[in-house]
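In response to reviewer comment 3 from the previous cycle, which asked for concrete evidence that the modeling workflow produces usable outputs, we include below a single protein chain processed end to end. The sequence was submitted unchanged, and the resulting structure tokens are shown without manual editing.
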Amino acid sequence: MNSISASAKKIFSSLEYRDFRSFWIANLSANAAAWALILGRALLVYQMSDSSDNQNLYVGLVTFLAMIPRVLMPPISGYLADRFERRKVVGGMFALNLLHNLVFVLLVFTDNITMWQVMALSFINGSARAAQMPVSQALIPNLIPKEKLLNGVALHQATIHGSRLIGPLAILPLLYFFSLEWAFLLCSGFYLISLYQILQVKSQATGTIDSSKNFVQNFLEGIPYVYNHPQLMIITLMAFFHCGLTMSFESMLTVISDDRFSSLGDSGVTIIMMATGAGALISALSLSVITNEKTKGNMLLNLSLMSGLSPIFLALSSNIYIATIAAIIIGLSQSGFMTLTHTMIQSVTDDGVRGRVGAVYSVHIGGIMALMNLINGTMSDISVPNFDILGQTIRLLAADYMLIIGGMLFILLVMASWFIKTFRNIYQYGLPVTNKL
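The workflow returned the following structure tokens.
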């Protein structure tokens, strides 16, 4: 019992700090709301477009509109994170999402919601979340000691990826016993908790803005900082391809679930999303206790390869049980990869430009995920022929092919990266934490 208690204390060690604890609860609630909304909106759009031949196109478009702000907003919010108090910027974004969600709930409950309104509100929700995420990342090192950085980042990543479990799990009973409207109302409750908790953070943290430079010069400072730093550049680019080729699958889950697990109704896609979140939570908490840099580098390589294999496993899943296992592996590998890359970026970035560097990173991963979700959702409506292997008919959807191709391309990319010295050094030795906190 004592060993279990000691392990738990080590895993959650950053939560000993009051401000980080409030920050963590705030982000957990906000991300639970975000993932519940992603699922709820997809189901709503799927129902609204039931008579249309372009169901998956609409789902992909709504997902795209929720994610494309991650290209547009982070440069501005990154500047704000280095110009103003980071906790206030985060709080403002939580307040905006609460207001957005209340409007959304009102429209759904009164049955006045239209497709264009869903799209517009998705864009507003995505904009507030996209603005908040790099600021939250920049705030972490200001709330905990530098030796706790991986633990803090891992726990924060647990709120992002683990909330794929918590958000859908929270609304599942409402979908089963009541209706979709109540699921959206619960999301408002999550956002209210997040706003209250972030207001409890007392630490005042800002970056450094050069007064001799104008707004645009300060605004753009993160771009050359990333691309002139070899380690930052390659980590950002690898995350870009990782998110585009392996993580942009949300817009395809509804068609896979509807075709393969139709007997489960809306519960099929919810189970897959929850399984992804469960794997992500396991991964983030496991990584939170790792301190050895060489181990981090080795884990990055292994998780990269697993991130490519797991979508292929999902595409070939013949029943909900195998699909659930595949989704757990997807969550485990992808969350682990993102946790390690976030930690490495934070460890080598000066605090004065942390918000703007985080913004550059968010633009890369958010932009490619938005684009690929749109492409994948559109391609999922295409009919593809069956083929025979050894007398057995193999039936795959267009969405399955997208998962397989993306996974295979990323595996090839990871294998090729071994021949780049900077990558190879990271895989073999990790990336030592510097004093730039």
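Confidence is low (pLDDT under 50) at residues 433-437. We consider this sufficient to address the reviewer's concern, and the full set will be provided in the supplementary archive.
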